[in-house]
Amino acid sequence: MNFCVCFDVNYLHKGLCCLYTLLKNDPDTKIFVLCFDDFVFNTVQNIKNIIPIRISDIEKQFPELLSIKNNRQPKEYYATTSPILPLYVFDNYSNVDKLFYTDADIAFWTNQNEIVDVFGESSLMVVDHGFEPPRAGIRFNVGILGYKNDVYCKEFLEWWKDRCIEWCYWVTTPDGKCADQGYLNVIYDKPNMFKNTLICPHPGVNMGPWNIAKHSVSEQDGVPKVDIKYNLICYHYHQFQMIGNNFYKPTDWKITESDKKIVYEPYFELMKKSIKGGL
Questions:
Q1: Which of 93, 89, 98, 79 is nearest to 161 (CA)?
Q2: 181 close to 141: Cβ distance less than 8 angstroms
Q3: Crossing angle, helix 84-92 and helix 151-166, to 10 degrees?
Q4: 129 and 138 in contact (C-beta within 8 Å)?
């Protein structure tokens, strides 16, 4: 299974926790890491099955990035690369048939290979936030995306790349723009524009603090479950903050004590280990 992720030194420990959980579940998983600085590159380059990519290599292949780099905040520039990273991987690693993107602040609690079964033979998979109508007009979360190395997926990625080069800022606009994320609305709003797309039906893929209250999270034989029958494959630790080395703030969203124990405490322990160099 192939994943891609990107982060800089500010997200180092979250990124390392993401890599650790992926490789713990399946040591054969290959992970392409777009490194936004040398510190991240040097940290991950010797981890087995990690393929580090320097941002300078991406910029050489996609020089249009340099035309907007100085006009965007770092996080806006990073978001601009969202459609470009999978294009780069497909162009340079032709043996990659399916590729899954994950945000760096996501951890995988059960085997991620289940996502392959969910994805099936789709060309593109997106994950709904779970609000109807969409909160602030943004239907999908960019945290987990599925890509197939085919013409349909590349058609979407090229379109998305052009939109992000034109506009990718950390604001939400009345017409549904929001950095790289708002553009994903097109999958729902114009369902015939791109072919062979899938809105992920699995509630345990990219669950986050925005929708955990809509579900029941429990443990069965030490395995986190969603609504009793689904595995909690991966959780998005949006807004998670370490407070020193012994405390944490889970999120601004309301989280129950039970969900903290099942979902947040294990992540907190991983973060502590990463900070201490113990992962």
A1: 79
A2: yes
A3: 140
A4: yes
- 279, pLDDT greater than 90: no
> What is the separation of C-alpha 187 from the centre of its chain, rounded to a whole number of angstroms?
18
On the question of pLDDT at 140 being above 90, the answer is yes
Residue 151's H or E segment, with its range, is helix 151-166
* 180 DSSP 8-state letter: B
The pLDDT value given to residue 67: 96
Share of the chain above pLDDT 90, in %: 94
The pLDDT of residue 245 is 85
∠ at Cα 54 (51, 59), nearest 5°?
Answer: 130
- pLDDT band with cut points at 50, 70 and 90 for residue 278: confident
- Answer yes or no: are the C-beta atoms of 26 and 113 closer than 8 Å: yes
3-state SS, residue 195: coil
Distance between CA 132 and CA 111 in Å, rounded?
29
Distance CA 88, CA 81 (A): 10
pLDDT digits (tens, 9 = 90+) for 180-226: 999 999 999 999 999 999 999 999 999 999 999 999 999 999 999 99
With beta carbons less than 8 A apart as the criterion, state whether 253 and 209 touch. Answer: yes
Q: Where are the beta strands (DSSP E) in the chain?
A: 2-7, 30-35, 50-54, 98-102, 106-108, 124-128, 140-148, 197-199, 217-220, 223-226, 230-231, 234-236, 241-243, 247-249
Residue 248 CB neighbours (<10 A): 19
Q: Which of 23, 24, 44, 25 is nearest to 34 (CA)?
A: 44
| Distance between CA atoms of residues 253 and 97, nearest Å | 37
Six-digit token pair at 245?
């080395």
